[in-house]
Amino acid sequence: MNDTACATAAGTVERTLVAALSRLCAAWPQTRRLTVGFSGGLDSTVLLHVLAHLRPAGLQLDALHVDHGWRPESADWARHCIARATALGVGCRVLRIEARAAPGESPEAAARTARYAALGARLDAGNALLTAQHADDQAETVLLMLLRGAGPKGLAAMPEDAALGSGRLWRPLLGVSRAALQAYATHYRLDWLDDPANTDTDYDRVFLRERLMPVLAGRFPAAARTLARSARLSAEAQAAVETLAAQDLDGLTGGGAGP
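^ that's the sequence the OP posted. Answer follows.
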């Protein structure tokens, strides 16, 4: 992208994030602190940069880096994150965890489970953890769920808002493409970490990202956007099913009365 296109994309990222935060804060007015899950990669670097410059009124902002200890350079990554956050005037804590996969469980899944459990334990009712998953991540998740034979609940993929510990987990960038985040980073001359695992096609998600999504986008340019829309429609369908089920149960039990 040229400079003008990058500036336009950066503005789109900022507006989308502001709209998402307005929506989420209205739904959860008790929120007083935003904690960015800061890996140091492109996506979370952009998320932290936008929030540090927006400084939403009435909300404290900090960052939390999870060190899985998988790689020799993990300590360097933690130092990078602390330095980048500090340069933005944001405090950054480092959380070190150890995740061991159970028999038949992938290391990636084990790490994700351990990570969210550790993060959730540190949230109170006034705290929201913000992560940087975006529209392309959502599209990949839909494809993974399809390949696993999931129904509407699985195809709803990642929610924008979910409970985590005593607080909330927010994904305010689900409406933003990876290309827009890249353009934002280019516009503001940000630097970030590149995890070698993000190009390792032994991981299913990376295989979809590197091998399948470019083919789909070549044939269907709006593939990522339409897959993300399918996730929203599946979430709406699942919510409708759950509402109807609750109404049916309420009718069978006489509004909660015992038999």
